[in-house]
Design goal:
about 230 residues, two-stranded antiparallel sheet, alpha/beta, 9 helices
Length: about 230
Amino acid sequence: MRIGQQGRPDAVIFDMDGTLFETDKLLIPVHGRVFGTLREEGLYMEEAPPAERLLGCLGMLLDDIWREIMPGSTEAARSRADELLLQYELEGLAAGEGALYPHVGETLRKLKESGAKLFVASNGLEHYVKGVAEHKGIALLFDGIYSAGEYETASKVDLVARLLQDHQLGSQHSVWMVGDRSSDVEAGRGNGLATIGCAYARYGRASELADADVRISDFRELLQLRL
């Protein structure tokens, strides 16, 4: 982990769900629609899992999520769930559903103005991750939006490594990884980055952020950090 000039970062990599985007405001209604359609199509006839279980799996790869919350499901059901989730999420975003966490937009702009390059690295589907950024008016602030869905990476460690390589962010740069789940902390530590855990998110266990270098309870705290 390299210390940047006066402790400020050269680049900051953000997770999306639970970090920038308050996902439950979109995902809870989408969850009901997905399982309703799966039942109508005869692909998954078990009782739908609680939406909280789906929210608790955010940060995992999608196939792992479906295997976790739809045990015994077929590959066809999981594939269709992927399609429906993306379709209903994009429809919800277009209708104005979902919201950024408080102060995200203004804080990202101030970080950008300070000279930091900004990125997203998410385990979600490409069109969903980019759709959130576009519909919520923050897409142009990022130098790159990376998703496991686009790059087909096996872990967030690999996804962040790809991002760093593409943008020539080496050991001579100060780069922060910001996220709310253990996968974000692992991605940062696995690539030698400073890690910042978002304790305001409600989707994971507090213990997931135990190994983060810093934990924040308000997004604006990023502007005061010196790592």
